[in-house]
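ATP-binding protein, pasting as requested.
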Amino acid sequence: MGRRHETAEVKRMLSASRLVTLTGVGGVGKTRLALRVAEDARRAFPDGVWLVELAALADPGLLAQSVSEALELRDHSSRPAVEALVDHLRDKQALILLDNCEQLVEACALLTGRLLREAPRLRVLVTSRQALGTAGEQTLPVPALALPDAEGPRLSVAALAQCDAVRLFVERAGAILPGFAVTEANRDAVEGVCRRLDGIPLGIELAAVRLRALSVQQLLDRLDDRFRLLTTGSRAVLPRHQTLRSLVDWSYDLCTGKEQLMWARISVFAGSLDLEAAEAVCGGDGIDRDEVLDLVAGLVDKSVLIREDHPEAVRYRMLDTLRHYGRERLATAGEEAVRLRRHRDYYQRLAATARAELFGPSQVPWFTRLQQEHANLRTALEYSFAEPGQAAAGLGIATDLLYHWITSYYLTEGRGWLDRGLFLCPEPTEARARALWTDGWLAIIQSDIDAAAAMLAECRELGARLRQEAILGYVALYSGMIAMCRDDTESAIGLYEEAAARHRATHDPVGLALALIRLSLAHSFLGDSPRAIAVGEESLAVCDAHQEGWHRAYATMALGVEVWRQGDYERATALERESLNFNRSLDDPLGVGVNLEVMAWISASQSHHQRAARLLGALRNIWHHIGAPLSGYGHLVRYHESCEADTRRSLGKQAFQAAVKEGARLSYDEALTYALQDQLPTRAPAGEGEQPSPLTPRETEIARLVARGLSNKEIAAALVIAQRTAEGHIERILSKLGFNSRAQVAVWVAGQNRSEHGVEAE
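Structure tokens follow.
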């Protein structure tokens, strides 16, 4: 609401400085102002406007990783996250919004300084309760919303309603009492409430909730009573920190005793939570499990919790100011240690259950849930490694989250947790052995082969000492991958066969499927087509028996490689497209990259050299984004090199470079559409004065479905993609457009439609 002057000032500052920090008390509206500026400025940043939310992050060591996640940077190399981030942003014209930096001021100052030095077209907008204090930083203290001049002439009702603070109050009151408006009868009370709250947006929003039970005058009377008591009768305007604190105190006091207890206990969660988690962590000791739902509903009604609708379940989020308040109350009650332990225990069980159920029909929902719970999983790991005697639990959680690390943006973070746990837990246990081969696989994906070999050597010794067939099976599997990386295919085949035998003996379908996929590729590499096909089909059968999709997509890819080698280009293309469709739905860029590689080789073999060159151009972006070309499949590079040489020779240098550039200009979604449909995007020239849409064609398609009122689940079904992927697209749409609601997207789509049909808005 309002903020025209501040918005213009921040834009001016951003045009003059590459680092602008908005400061002010919690709840004053820094984030809202920053998002509005970002929305207005997005067309000036062709490489995107990116929101990085830091309220739930406590560890400064994870700052660069968190920024990378927000920028959708999946770096599979072993270099530090900050190096990958710098490399990614070096030539980008982008705006990064770092939100809620106050608990990480020093780390944010160091990171922004490094990024701005090495990425000359980058700009950073920061919200924090204090400035970063770095060279070149411009700061703007964000004031409260504008109020009528207390010494000026009395405004008309219409003029009063246009004051920023009053407009916000009326908007929030209208959500409680439809049709609420400023009138001659209530104008003094409305203005009094806004003035008593110093125009602080969070305070106004919390107070407006009370209109369910109070009139505006009653609300003002209670604010006057509370604040007069707090200041011993002083009528001076309260400092904003005290005003907000006292208002939160009042919200707390208006809760029932059990709601207060629930508020305090929920404060141990980071990010968001669902009802099941609330029942497990917050129940007991004064709150029966069957009371949790009603208590959560009560906190939602009082605006302490924010309800978020997701396809699979409703989730709840607490504003950072209210969460910190709850933690203070929890500590005062002497419950903080107990609830943090219960929180860790819950997410320890969640990670173990996810690992047990991932190879089956619930795979994609589990991937989605773990990504939603990432902030809580991180909190559980932080607790485990910081609390004396709990490191073994942390190592177990990090190990169980293997597929979460691989299929999301957290590969480097996962390896960091595993390295930390292995350092703290040197005992020769089965848990250490599992962590060693888990960490070893992450190292292989990052092409850190020597480190992986060292971990697997220790793991082999442990497996033999413990006489654990499962451990030895995974050691053989990943040792085979290392052998392939070192061009020792014969040894790799022997190791893969050993792994398959051990996993059959232990009835482990996950290890067996992985071993068979790699064995199929190895046999294909040596030219043993019958064996490659037989093993590949066996891997598909294992996956189908468990209704599993992710490993099946890789098995299909492997079969496609061999079918291509046999010269059946049509079937090979069909296999790769089948695999690509699943990898696209799961948003797995590594799988997508390998699929596009094989499709480029097929195109070159069919003498479709222009298509091959375009796919090679698109692949340059994908592999640069991942940070490790053909990560984990390095032995296939000879096919890539052969394809590139053949295509360059057939097209000629100039035509080859032009086609590669054409492919490199495709967005990620456009490249996948081209691979699947052999159709380049059509880009009509923009009309005079028109601005290009900031959304990709895929995002535009999803935005239109949002505008039609479809839920995330319905969008996923309509486009045949995972719900997690649909949610990720919608989050990126909101970020690019600078919006915070689906309704804003609908309005934007309507405006785009009018523009497309030549209808000008009035």
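Note for the archive: Strands lie at 19-23, 49-53, 95-99, 123-128, 138-141, 272-274, 305-309, 314-318.
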